[in-house]
Amino acid sequence: MPTFHIARSASVDLTGQPSFAVNSDPGEQGSVGVGVFSLDPDFMISLGQYTQTGGALRSILRVTVVPTEAHSGDDLPDVLGRYQVLEDEVRFVPHFPFERGLSYRASFDPRPLGRPEFTQVLTHEFSLPKDQATFPTDVTRIFPAADDLPENLLRFYVCFSSPMQRGRAEAEISLLASDGEPAPDVLYRAPVELWDRSMQCLTILLDPGRLKRGVGPNRKLGPPLKAGQMYMLAIGAGMTDIFGGQLAKNAYKRFRVTDAVREPITVERWKFVPPLANSRQPLVLMFPRPLDWAMLFHAIAIESTSEQSIDGAIEIDQNETRWSLTPTSTWAAGDYHIRIASSLEDICGNSVTAAFDRPLRSGGDLAYEAESRLIPFHVAPVRQ
Q: Given this model, what pLDDT does residue 370 score?
């Protein structure tokens, strides 16, 4: 991600000539933030003391949208995001990407620190260029990937080739029945669209009230999908990316509905073969049924017996029934374990500890669900 703009302040009381920069987050590629850097060490010490006593970084560094002529009198809210305090920098990264073409104002105000030498307020206005994408945006993948999906399917993930804008999902995304007409009251329309941080993956939920047996919507309307029927998830070309462009074409996922799955994930039925020592062979896990694509990236971890995490590249394929980790470094001989978070779900919302469609749980059940599961394995030394 290139640096979009750097502006140095004029005369300031702080030593080190602090400057505003708008560029990518070094710890998260593609996430653009704004920060004040080249801050004096004394300032950073005072800032640390300020936050330790409950002071909010939002009081020091704020980012707002610059009012337009049409909204010149409006009191626009702050942009929401997270803060980083680095060696000589205070940085703000928005929860959702800055929108290209809009103007933003960053304000740096050290006065809440209560130090007479830190009094000058710095402001900086910036915008990201409203470039046109080199290629039209399209839908790259839809999960679950299988063509046969259970009657109590809980969610879809729709992935796009570019970051997208909010506000178009309800009008452009529908579930069509076998006659080509939208199936009524099937999708859950969340008050806020469920995008990931990159704005390239949208979660689409089927109505949970119709999935849960015995609940009012289920009693009245039945499940959202009917076993034996064909459906099609349709994503209209009116979905808009951050460049203002629409999709190159409509996207569709056709699938047939099979019987519901209402049982917990059985870890004991997973299959795997330990890798060889002194190699970078992937550790591969095979599941008897598809698991939730997004959760698989963070709900399974490989650790040594000292709980040292094994870093590497995760790959999920074979319709979400195969997970693999290719380590960054070669495997050392020794004992390891696979840590499985209790939050891991299959595509129907069934977890490691219980089925999605289950009776109310006791306090003891909830405590058990908070525990992760461990599968031990051994990497044997290579025989000479």
A: 57
Alpha carbons 22 and 32: distance in angstroms, whole number: 7
Q: Which residues pair with 25 in a beta bridge?
A: 28
Rounded to whole angstroms, the Cα distance separating 169 from 193 reads 7
Tokens in use for 129?
């260029």
Cα–Cα distance measured from residue 185 to residue 108, given in angstroms and rounded to the nearest whole number: 48
Check: CB of residue 183 under 8 Å from CB of residue 224: yes
209 residue type, one letter: G
Identify how many contiguous H helices and E strands the chain contains and give both numbers: 5, 24
pTM: 0.67
Look at residue 46 and give its three-state secondary structure.
Answer: helix
Asked if the model's pLDDT at residue 7 lies above 90, the reply is: no
Pairing of strands 148-150, 251-258: parallel
pLDDT of 257 strictly over 90:
yes
CATH class of the domain at 267-379: mainly beta
For domain 5-126, give its CATH number from 1.10.3720, 2.60.40, 1.20.5, 3.10.450.
2.60.40
| Phi and psi at residue 144, to the nearest 5° | -65, 150
